[in-house]
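Quick illustration, no need to memorize.
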Amino acid sequence: MGSAPTAADRARYADATPRPFWTDVFPVRDSRAPLEGEVDCDLCIVGGGFTGLWAAVRAKDEDPGREVVVLEGATVGFGASGRNGGFLDASLTHGLANGLSRFPEEMPTLERLAADNYDGLRADLERLGIDCALEENGHLAPALEPFELDGLEEEAEEMRRFGHEVEVLDEDAVRAEVDSPTYLGGLWKRSGAALVDPGRLVVGLADAAEAKGVLINERSPATSLEARGAVGVDVLTTAGRVRARRVLLATSAFPPLLRRLRRYIAPVYDYVLVTEPLSASQQEAIGWQRRQGLDDGFNQFHYYRLTPDDRILFGGYDAVYRFGGRVGARHDVHDPTFARLSQHFGMTFPQLEGLRFSHRWGGAIDTCSRFSVFFGTALDGRVAYAVGYTGLGVGSTRFGARVALDLLDRRETEATRLRFVRGRPVPFPPEPLRSAVIQLTRNRLAAADRADGRRGLWLRTLDRLGLGFDS
């Protein structure tokens, strides 16, 4: 997309703060104490992001007397939960098309469960008093190339078949919503799609969990699991030990405590820019009065939205994997990607020339080959996990937390009987083959975007093997 970025593209983010906008605008708070010594509990949750915090809240709702401890290696929301774009989508399967390609026989049930989870999340926000700047304005997917227009009506009909409210827009209609010279048409999904401030959501969940009696220990990275006879599991940290009856792992892209999971997770880095607040004239120049969330339909796609204070968050396109799945703070900035995002932003909204970026950051996504959360248990059912969301986890993490708790409690439900829950993704190959496969696939996805979406032999082979890579 475009030629090489220029010095002007880089200048737009030269002074940008290198940390997430969402956490940068948090009110100053005292950090929670790290774990020291030994603690006994009924349930230990490893990971203080959305999955872990939803699980903590639900565990106490189900049994107020249950002793629950959350271990977070940094601070709550430090990982993907505080670094994402804040797109709340009802889908549990990373979109309808991805779900239909992998779980066609279960999609009516999965879509119904997704709608129930979305409604339940909205009700929980009200019940728990969490103000996360929820905006239910739907999702707009603009078409940028003529070949994309051919399938819009068919895609809309498929979505309507599953109960979604969706509208096909021609060029004039889509540019009346958001004015970009790159738009040729689009789909507006009006139901089951919203925006939130993910930072305020994660802080609200943590506060709600603590109000129910959950102990949250920050700066307490878990290092290993040890079976304690046949009755429990010990979670070791750098400075202490939690003696738990049950353990729920919600570690996202960070190295899992179960070695078996490393075959299924590839930490892929995503990067984001956020502009300064728009002036009244800049807002008028682009329209966007109905504040939908947007992403385009390419394999290398961009996602973007307005923040509550009228900045534009613009992210995506590159998905950067490092050899061995390395995750760490040194990867949170990546100038080549920031430069491309700045360039592409200028192409999308040329009328905003001169607007600068205030924030830039990156973070790791827990990608798996089926592009949606997967589940499992270990140590005779005393440990459960929910990982692999691959984005779109703001809503599905609530479902993931519920299913993981059901597995721990050996509670059979409609969800736990599904192949979606019982099955596993196709594992990634070991290094060095893993890096080679991922880099080749990124190259072929970019080639497909240049070839009117036509997937070549390599991508078709991966599709047949169940390895996906369609976004």
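The longest strand covers residues 357-367.
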